[in-house]
Amino acid sequence: MIVEGSVLVVNAGSSSLKYQVLDPVTEEVIADGLVERIGEPMSSVKHWYRGHDVRREVALPDHEAAIALVLDLFKADGVDIADSGLSAVGHRVVHGGRSFFAPTLITDEVRSEIERISPLAPLHNPANLTGINAVSALLPDVPAVAVFDTAFFSDLPDEAATYALDAEVAREYAVRRYGFHGTSHEYVSRCAADFLGRDVADINQIVLHLGNGASASAVRGGAPIDTTMGMTPLEGLVMGTRTGDIDAGIVFQLSRVAGMSIEDIDTLFNKKSGLKGLCGDNDFRSILERVAEGDDAAERAYRVYLHRLRRYIGAYMIELGKVDAIVFTAGVGENAAPVRADSLAGLENYGIRIDADRNAVRSPDPRLISTDDSAVAVLVVPTNEELAIARAAVGVVSA
Ligand code: AMP
């Protein structure tokens, strides 16, 4: 049975569909799944419902076929999703541009606007829209809400959001810092405040979302004042396969000297760079193992990764003036104790002291890893974007 009031959360990529059904009140995950290689000769489906696992290899020509199969898998377990009392579908939408600053009920106008701003995120928004259309074709009676990755950052101070580019060109092409991973930064910064028993409005935090994609934000009183990702999710920290910050002159150089096309450079910067480009690996577990074995390329990748991370931690300490908490989240932030220790090493003079034993604890729960006498609380807070999207969707439909 699906609990009345549950939310279907959908994250549609260009050839993939991730979904969860969860109860936003108890946080119980009722179903969870991933369809990959949609549109290819053979798609793969992983579906989990209340402890029951299903795996399928089947041809799914498009997202609607994928959703139809998922609904059939629910039916095989005796659940008619269309008639199960879902309160909403929450769709992750990557780019809200200057149009969407909050979770938004999806109407025809909203769809058109998401489409209109698609050039800002050509790989993501069209895929998100495909997911929205496919789900609403099959679940027309369930209200659908778009939750934007950029929304949390939509009020960034002008000086943080503005690139020093010809102002006319920037205006014409909507070039500015938008920031991404906002759902995670907002969720984690609120959880961190709750954990500390403080009102989020009263504290300043540095949030480090370190996953395969990675971003940092400086959050003052619950509102971000800066973030590392920019007009696209390419900027900022060293990531699994993305360069993060890079001299834009390198684009001209690679074009002129290496004869690379814009598409080649796009692929190089987004898919073949970062940790993978530096050492051939973007799984942090194996990078840490290789570092321990004395592998030079992995050790260099690790140093470059940490150097960038520490640079932003320092910058955000200055921007915030006073920092109450530094919060680690996402795959690397939640699990890689050496990254947490090394990124904050030697900062005792700034009131930052990690407790080695606390840092070594593995747990799915929010936890403190700084010493009791550390002026800055250092926390690990697992992110949960699905739960945040589900809650946001319910917030919109019950408003
Ligand atoms: P995400 O994008 O949040 O799913 O994070 C993916 C990243 O987290 C990958 O680089 C993983 O290698 C890394 N990761 C996951 N588990 C661990 C772990 N136990 N130790 C180190 N890194 C991990």
TrEMBL record:
Coiled coil: none annotated. Its cofactor is Mg(2+); Mn(2+). Mg(2+) binds at residues 11, 385. HAMAP family: Acetate_kinase. Belongs to the acetokinase family. It catalyses: acetate + ATP = acetyl phosphate + ADP. The record marks 181, 242 as: Transition state stabilizer. It comes from Gordonia malaquae NBRC 108250. Pathway: Metabolic intermediate biosynthesis; acetyl-CoA biosynthesis; acetyl-CoA from acetate: step 1/2. Substrate binds at residue 92. Its EC number is 2.7.2.1. Pfam families: Acetate_kinase. One of its GO terms (molecular function) is acetate kinase activity. One of its GO terms (cellular component) is cytoplasm. It is found in: Cytoplasm. The active site is at residue 149. Catalyzes the formation of acetyl phosphate from acetate and ATP. Can also catalyze the reverse reaction. This is Acetate kinase. Keywords: ATP-binding, Cytoplasm, Kinase, Magnesium, Metal-binding, Nucleotide-binding, Transferase. The lineage of its organism: Bacteria, Bacillati, Actinomycetota, Actinomycetes, Mycobacteriales. Homodimer. ATP binds at residues 18, 209-213, 283-285, 331-335.
